[in-house]
User: What shape does this take?
Amino acid sequence: MGDKTDLATRDPFIDALRVISVLVVVIGHWLTTTVIWEDGIIDIENALSVIRKSHVATWLIQVMPVMFFVGGFANARSLDLHGGAYLAYLRTRYRRLLTPTLVFIGVWLAIGVLAEVLLDELPNVADRAADLAALPFWFLGLYVFVVALAPPMRRLHRRFGWWVPGVLAVGVVVVDVLHHGLGVAHVGVLNYAFVWLLTHQFGFFHADGALQRLSRGVVFGVTTIGLAGLVVLTVLGSYPVSMVGVPGDERWNTNPPSLALVMLTLWLVGLVLLIKPWLGDRRWVSIGNRVVLTVFVWHVSAVSLGAVILYPLGFPRPDTGTLEWWAWRPVWIAALVPVMVILVVVFRRFEIHPKPTGFVAADALTIRHVAAGMAAVSLGLGILGFGVTGFNRVAQDLGEGVLDFDLNPLQNVLHLVLGLGLLTAVYQRGRDVVVAASGVALWFLVLGLLGISDGLAVFGMNPATAVLHVVLGALGIVLIGFAIARDRASRGGPRKQSK
Assistant: This one.
């Protein structure tokens, strides 16, 4: 019964893309990440920093556009299964996404704290592993925001169609000009929304059948435009060739996302549509989809565990980029497979696939929507923050930055706790959501004000991060007030009684 329903609502093409894109991410990270462990010194070297001619390969292995495309389809399908009900949709999607993610965070935070408290010298093996483990959280944090924004973006899609990605593309160009051309620093953060929401919109077009109706000639033309755009931007323009961040380079295409990633989206989405006839519903796809999130969050941890196991046994460690290094890379990747299998066996139980369930909010429906949105922002900041900071040096005064916003793991934990608490209140009918949402908004406001005055160095905030918290807290208070007023107006006044 349930299995037949699942099969009826699944798309074999999307399932295959989900598994293949995660496998590309896994193999890409295993290939390019070299663990250096000599004379008590532990470090990580990215092969892209050494082998400069390999950067063009990222035009195939940077599959985040494909992952957001798959996410757009999955979110559209989930919305349909929930009848468009925002709160029911969000609960199902977040339960699927957050359960394995929070287990992962708990494990690595414990390791990071123990490494800092119990071991004498930093960096040590556990400290560096806790730093490296959070690499996948860039995607997860951004995706938390995108999941929450999917319902309004779907409504825009249904009303305006191709105009939506068109407008988002124009926004990307404007931000690139302001950020890279005119040096306006903080405006670059807008491209995190413009680029990835644009890519996500393509998934809506696939869910609606619009992409399937395109002729192969049109798809080939779009694919060619994307590839030609990459060539023009990187050869004639000032955009980096690499579509992933390369340590040591002054400019990345991913931080902030740039127009090059829009061209990469056209190229990769067009390419996967062209090869669609060769992708089908095979047994390995079905098996892979059951553990795909577990593999994604734990695959970088397999690198650290592999080094801990293999290096003391004498596994060769040639210099990155040498012929010997290339010769041993396939062996290294093969050796990490059993490590990954063990991690999947241990943690796959936390990867759940919840069925669609209904939820009828209490009187203040609009309040619950506002509270859910605030919870999504707090959760997204926490998870994305770990992608920046890792899980080590939990309460360091000097946070690590992204676009001039400084964070540390303790700040990330606070965001997660606030977000989870508020999200819990949204789905408990007896809870006063107004109080819970107001408390979170005030916390953001107070944290920001204390951060501006340097009163909370333990959270690693700089002035830009503090101001962001003030803005988010103030915006939350305004939205709560608007929701209360709207709710009272819809009921004919604050004290209207039924006969």
User: Anything to note?
Assistant: Residues 1-8, 360-364, 494-499 have pLDDT under 50 and may be disordered. Residues 365-490 form one domain. Residues 72 and 176 are 24 Å apart (CA to CA). The chain has 18 helices and four strands.
